[in-house]
């Protein structure tokens, strides 16, 4: 009963966090690992659990969603699917020991990039990136999301900011759509590879969906600074937890 409550709570909060600004896997991955699930399987299961939450969050931001300058929605869909598939395939061939070692560094890097996103955007100001550079950026982040998913929303928000998007609600809506697309193809590959624990995943999906929609509706009314501070604090805390576990 304790483990079930832990997983449901983590999934609900993760769905809300993903809808707000990203970083939901900072909660689901540690919760699954705490219950004894191996890291690679925990990552795949947590990713599957958050898929409906991404979709619900995207619907919650439906009035605000808009693509970044230089990219169309059609191109974003294609890039998201290709990158997500590549990252998921890489996860299937990664040993648990290796994945355990890189997780805290991935979490820390994602948190730092989001925290300093506004400064990076100002430093790179002086014209919007070319479509080619934007394409490479989206492919790289989508592959990361298919491989790890932890901090995916943080990276997407940072990327959209660097591409010239400034409206946080529009960025959040797009982040959720892209996350849903690449996560869907990644979960299909995880399932084919047999690394998803479906009983836990299905149970967590329900909680993540409720959290995703509710979080999106609430986030539209919160100051951006509050959202950014909350995500950074969560990312730092989870990074420390995984470093300590090593």
Quick summary:
This protein is mainly α and 246 residues long.
Please describe the structure with a list of short key phrases separated by commas or semicolons:
single chain; 246 residues; mainly alpha; 11 helices
Overview of this protein structure:
The chain has 11 helices and no strands. Helix 1 packs antiparallel against helix 2, helix 3 runs parallel beside helix 10 and helix 7 packs across helix 9. The longest helix has 26 residues. It has one domain. The protein is mainly α. The model has no long low-confidence stretch (mean pLDDT 82). It is globular, with a radius of gyration of 16 Å. It holds the Pfam family TauE. Belongs to the 4-toluene sulfonate uptake permease (TSUP) (TC 2.A.102) family. It is a multi-pass membrane protein.
Outline the secondary-structure elements.
Blueprint: H1 2-20, H2 25-34, H3 39-60, H4 73-92, H5 96-115, H6 117-123, H7 131-147, H8 152-162, H9 168-193, H10 198-219, H11 224-245
Helix pairs in contact: 1-2, 1-3, 1-10, 2-3, 3-9, 3-10, 4-7, 4-9, 5-8, 5-11, 6-8, 7-8, 7-9, 8-9
Report, as a whole number of angstroms, the end-to-end distance. 28 Å
| Oligomeric category | single chain
| Structural class by SSE content | mainly alpha
Poorly predicted segments? none
Bulk shape: globular
Task: Sketch the topology as an H/E string, one letter per element.
Answer: HHHHHHHHHHH
Radius of gyration based on Cα positions: 16 Å
Number of helices: 11
Mean pLDDT metric: 82
């Amino acid at each position: 009963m304790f483990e079930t409550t832990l997983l449901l709570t983590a999934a609900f909060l993760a769905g809300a966090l993903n809808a707000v600004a990203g970083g939901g896997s900072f909660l689901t991955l540690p919760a699954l690992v705490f219950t004894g699930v191996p890291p690679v399987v925990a990552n795949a299961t947590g990713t599957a659990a958050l898929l409906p939450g991404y979709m619900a969050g995207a619907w919650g931001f439906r009035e605000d969603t808009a693509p970044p300058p230089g990219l169309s929605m059609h191109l974003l869909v294609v890039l998201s699917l290709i990158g997500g598939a590549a990252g998921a395939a890489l996860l299937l061939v990664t040993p648990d020991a290796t994945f355990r070692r890189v997780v805290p560094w991935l979490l820390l890097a994602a948190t730092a990039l989001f925290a300093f996103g506004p400064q990076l955007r100002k430093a790179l100001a002086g014209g919007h990136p070319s479509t080619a550079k934007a394409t490479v950026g989206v492919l790289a982040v989508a592959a990361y999301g298919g491989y790890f998913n932890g901090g995916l929303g943080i990276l997407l928000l940072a990327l959209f900011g660097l591409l010239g998007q400034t409206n946080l609600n529009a960025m959040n809506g797009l982040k959720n759509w892209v996350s849903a697309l690449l996560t869907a193809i990644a979960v299909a590959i995880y399932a084919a590879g047999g690394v998803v624990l479906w009983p836990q995943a299905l149970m967590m999906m329900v909680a993540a969906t409720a959290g995703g929609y509710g979080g999106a509706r609430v986030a539209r009314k919160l100051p951006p600074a509050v959202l950014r501070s909350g995500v950074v604090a969560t990312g730092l805390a989870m990074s420390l937890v995984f470093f300590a576990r090593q």
